[in-house]
Design a protein that fits this description.
Layout: E1 3-6, H1 17-50, H2 60-63, H3 65-88, H4 90-109, H5 114-143, H6 148-176, H7 181-184, H8 186-200, H9 214-232, H10 234-237, H11 243-265, H12 279-308, H13 314-320, H14 322-339, H15 348-363, H16 372-387, H17 390-399, H18 406-438, H19 440-454, H20 460-469, H21 473-503, E2 525-528
Antiparallel strand pairs: 1-2
């Protein structure tokens, strides 16, 4: 039998077994959702050949929609999560999200062509998009005001390891089995998560009186999806001046601006922008945007550096950046404990120092002859800083909200993080691409390689550059590429320095939590068996 009980106020600051059990189901859902993004990216070249029906390789721009479709579905459903959690209950909605994600995974594994795979990925994204904001809501409510930092640190582990472990897992599955297992691996995880959630999550009370903000849905969901599509198209187009970038981005911005005016005039909007009156949430959102754009934009380039400049495989590139994850895993529990004892304004600056030092060192270590232990050392320092930064920001954002506001606050955080990550990746990729274009040697090498892949003669100009450099051609290409990575890291570093301004306004005095203001008792409900 399962009973809902209240924690003892005396034990308010302890992480009990029951709370860890609840955290387990949230982490499991987060692992499925986050890993799937990077695992599938590794499989894109395989899709080009395996899903071809006429023997001709499918265009990369077409198979890329398996990633784009998932991202757009993710973006479209996130704004709905706060309303749906209030309307149907967090537990019921979380289980529905897991079921949708698992069903989408099963269908993806059965895809008979690229069009079917793209459609099933969209279904998968509808479930995956709800898992993170719902997980944050569940963790916040289970932790109560005195344990949020430590519980959020647990949730941060899959968020950090996803970009690192995804390429490794994807490479192993494709090499040892087939691309189908990229999706099939989610089936046992999804079934376990469903049973787990049913047993350990409390049945919460939905609020059936609140109607769906239909106008808000029609403005915000397509607006966010259009903006992310436009921004994410920048790397492929190589410029922000392309119609593929400008048109959807402008449409997205206009729809989001219209939503802002609509939300401020409506009693129960899809996203409650009035929550921004909470100083902690507002400042944390600004810090999170700048941090996520810079950090995740730079993080994406590290495995690319190992592959393009150092000639490593996807698997080895993933293993080489693992020390960053190890560094974060060391400091996350410490930062979580400190966050429960002191204001985040006294913790996050130290995390930023670690990231800034590590990223600067990385920018000076891109030469092809740099020993790997140098690069690994800087990545480890970055990880130490990251572990002291991201989850304390999340904790600060939600800690002073009331319990019924947490779902909406979590949704806002996830919207900002999605936009920031896509923006940062686009910015860093375009900067790096432009550096490559400015190098005659790199441009010539890319032109020769493209001609080789298409089975046509290499351009005469590219051959002249190669012949002119002679034996120095390859070393010049790698050196110029390395310089491009170093310069791009410095841009990310500058963005993080700018982020120090809002970091200064994070709370440096202990503030009263309001999580329990609208609850009976002294703590959030926990499940006992």
């Amino acid at each position: 039998m399962t009973d809902t009980v209240k924690t003892n106020p005396v034990d308010d600051d302890k992480i009990t077994r029951e709370i860890l059990v609840v955290a387990g189901v949230v982490v499991l859902g987060a692992i499925m959702s986050i890993l799937d993004v990077t695992v599938v990216n590794v499989a894109l070249p395989t899709f080009q050949t395996e899903l071809s029906s006429d023997g001709q390789e499918i265009a990369y721009s077409t198979v890329a929609w398996t990633a784009t479709g998932y991202m757009l579905a993710l973006a479209a459903v996130i704004p709905l999560t706060g309303w749906a959690a209030d309307r149907f209950g967090t537990k019921r909605l979380y289980m529905t999200a897991i079921a949708l994600f698992t069903l989408g995974s099963a269908l993806c594994a059965t895809a008979w062509n690229i069009e079917a795979l793209i459609a099933f990925r969209v279904l998968q994204g509808l479930g995956g998009g709800m898992l993170m904001p719902l997980g944050m809501t569940i963790m916040t409510q289970a932790a109560g005001p005195h344990r949020m930092g430590r519980l959020m640190a647990i949730l941060g582990i899959p968020m950090l390891l996803g970009p690192i472990m995804g390429p490794i897992l994807g490479g192993v599955l494709i090499d040892s089995a087939s691309w189908h297992w990229v999706f099939l691996i989610n089936l046992p995880l999804g079934l376990i998560a469903l049973v787990y959630a049913q047993r350990v999550l409390a049945a919460d009370k939905p609020v059936p009186s609140e109607k769906l903000d239909v106008v808000g849905v029609l403005l915000m969901s397509p607006g966010l999806a259009a903006l992310l599509y436009g921004v994410s198209s920048i790397p492929g187009e190589g410029t922000v001046q392309s119609a593929t970038v400008i048109i959807p981005s402008v449409i997205g911005v206009l729809l989001i601006v219209a939503f802002v005016f609509h939300a401020l005039a409506k009693t129960n909007p899809l996203l409650d922008l009035r929550l921004l009156a909470d100083r902690n949430l507002a400042v944390s959102l600004i810090v999170m945007f700048l941090f996520a754009a810079a950090f995740f934009g730079a993080l994406l380039l590290v495995p690319t550096y190992f592959q393009q400049v150092r000639g490593e495989s996807v698997l080895k590139a993933g293993l080489l950046i693992a020390p960053q994850g190890l560094g974060a895993m060391l400091t996350m529990p410490i930062a979580g404990t400190l966050t429960d004892k002191m204001p985040v304004g006294r913790i996050v600056p130290f995390g930023f120092v670690g990231i800034l030092v590590g990223l600067f060192g990385l920018s000076q270590s891109t030469d092809p002859s740099t020993p790997y232990w140098h690069i690994i050392g800087w990545l480890f320092i970055m990880g130490l800083g990251m572990g002291s930064t991201m989850m304390p920001i999340f904790t600060s954002a939600l800690k002073t909200l009331k319990s019924h506001e947490v779902a909406r606050g979590s949704t806002l955080l996830n919207v900002v993080q999605q936009v920031a990550s896509a923006t940062g990746i686009a910015i860093m990729t375009v900067i790096l691409t432009n550096h490559f274009k400015d190098s005659a040697a790199v441009s010539a090498a890319q032109a020769i390689e493209a001609a080789k892949d298409r089975g046509i003669p290499a351009p005469a100009g590219a051959l002249e550059i190669m012949q002119g450099l002679g034996d120095r051609f390859q070393s010049t290409v790698l050196s110029d590429m390395a310089d491009g990575f170093g310069s791009t890291y410095l841009v990310a570093l500058a963005m993080l320095v700018v982020a120090l301004v809002p970091v200064y306004f994070l709370p440096r005095k202990r503030e009263e939590s309001h999580l329990l203001d609208d609850q009976d008792g002294n703590a959030a409900p926990i499940i006992m068996h």
